[in-house]
Each structure stands twice: as structure tokens, then as C-alpha cells.
Amino acid sequence: RALELDLRMAVEQQQLELYYQPQVNTLNHQIACFEALLRWHHSERGPVAPAEFIPVAEDTGLIIPIGSWVLRRACQDARKWPENVCVSVNVSPVQFRTESLLADVKSALSTSGLTPQRLELEITEAILLHDTLNTLTTLTQISQMGVQISMDDFGTGYASLSYIQKFKFDKVKIDRSFVSDLVCSKDNQAMVHALCRLCISLGIGTVAEGVENLRQLRLLEQEGCTNMQGYYFARPMPADQAAIAIEKQT
Ligand code: G
Ligand code: G
Ligand code: NA
Ligand code: MN
């Protein structure tokens, strides 16, 4: 498979890059965190979307060296930001199936000197579908180091509400699909309302994804959603621009 070969080359030649998208605090719109998002610009293919190459990386095992690099790079970049700004890293279910994740997290933290509380891992519901015991053990070990765990794309997968009880997540990310139609869809308003109430009751933070306009923002504010992410605030940007964006706001 050609994409696999190109991806292997990209890893070796360090052609992968991390972009960062702010997650702001709903109360003051200050940047609380940056989500690290992989970008790959291939010399002939042009930009290749993560939706295209992440599945290939997962099938071929390349996600292990890639995931390890992402953790190291993200912690190193975050080390240069103010101490109240965190970095959030997407973790593939495949990374949980190998023994390397715990070691990779420890090594990224120790080589960068980033405090564990400033690192967040974003995991999807799919992670809890298989091999639940091992996964929960690893999650608990990482969480006990002080690293924050958030559930990504909540409400779109197979998980039932009981999943956010199986493990004490620090945050739940409300999937973009609920936010994009929020203003027009009473159903989506009901979902977001219920999710925010539930998370408030459980003492879990909420991050709304895909916030693109002021009307969505106002509704989310009313529901007590704690953090927001989306084009309304900023698109994903290179590390040097992320550093500038933080300097500007302080
Ligand atoms: O940036 P974009 O919206 O195209 O990202 C699409 C998806 O790719 C995201 O939902 C995210 O889950 C996934 N993704 C982006 N960066 C990473 C990464 O570093 N690791 C993993 N496992 N997934 C990522
Ligand atoms: O990990 P996750 O699946 O949540 O990835 C977030 C993806 O959503 C990234 O690829 C990012 O580029 C994209 N994204 C972020 N904000 C917005 C937004 O406001 N609108 C849309 N359409 N996409 C967004
Ligand atoms: Na994510
Ligand atoms: Mn998501």
C-alpha cells in the first residue's frame, strides 16, 4: 500500500507536524489548553488528513512510534507556555493495546520537564470496548500520575452513560455533531443540556467542540459548559503561532 510506505518515510524523515487549537475557558475566554492535532504535508500528495492516515497508522502499528513522538513533541512545546496552559493529546485505542503507553507518557513528561497536571489525554469511547480491564488499569496508572483524562467525541460511539462511571474522567468533550446544529435543533439542545447537567453533577468538566458562532457560544454558556473549542475562537495553528496567541492575551 503506497500510503503506508509514504507514511513510514514521513515518520523517519520527521515530516509530521503538530498544530494546536485553543480550548478556552467559558467564563473569561482565556486559553486553558491547546489540543495537539497531527498534520502531514506530503511533497506530492499535498496535505493528507488525519482521518485518512491515522487508520493506516493504526492498522500497520505505525501509530506506536507516531503516538510516542506526538507525546514528546506536545510536552516539549507546552513547556514553553505559561504554567496555567495545558496541552491535550489524542490517544488511539491501539496505543492502549501495547505496553508502551505508560512508558511513553512518563518519558515525554520527564524529558520535557512538564508537570503531569498540564498534560491531558483525549481518548474515545472505543477504548473501553475491548480489553476493558487492562485499559482501565493503564488509565488509572496514568491518572494517578496527575495526568488529566478526557473523553473525546462523547455521544457518537457505542458507549452508554455507564462508561463515564467506569472511570473517573476529568473532562468530557461534547462532539461537534451536537454543537453544529445546536441553534436550530431542539433535540441537540436537549442532548447538550442533559450532558452538561450530568457532568456538573459528577464534577466533570465539559469541552464543546466545533463552536463556530456567537449563538452556539451563548447557548453553551447558559448550559454551564466549562470550556469551548472551535473556529469561532481559532483554527488549529503551528506551535510558533500558538505561543504568540498566548502572549497576546496576557
Ligand atoms: O485535525 P482534524 O480535525 O482533521 O483531525 C481529525 C481527527 O484526527 C481528530 O478527530 C483526531 O481524533 C485525529 N487526530 C488528530 N491528531 C491525532 C493524533 O495525534 N493522534 C491520534 N490518535 N489521532 C489524532
Ligand atoms: O479529536 P477530534 O475528533 O475532536 O478533532 C477535532 C477536529 O475538529 C480537528 O480536525 C479540527 O480541525 C476540527 N475542528 C475544530 N474546530 C472546528 C470547528 O469549529 N468546525 C469544524 N467544522 N471543525 C473543527
Ligand atoms: Na480529539
Ligand atoms: Mn472530537
TrEMBL record:
<feature type="domain" description="EAL">
    <location>
        <begin position="1"/>
        <end position="250"/>
    </location>
</feature>
<protein>
    <submittedName>
        <fullName>Putative signal transduction protein containing a membrane domain, an EAL and a GGDEF domain</fullName>
    </submittedName>
</protein>
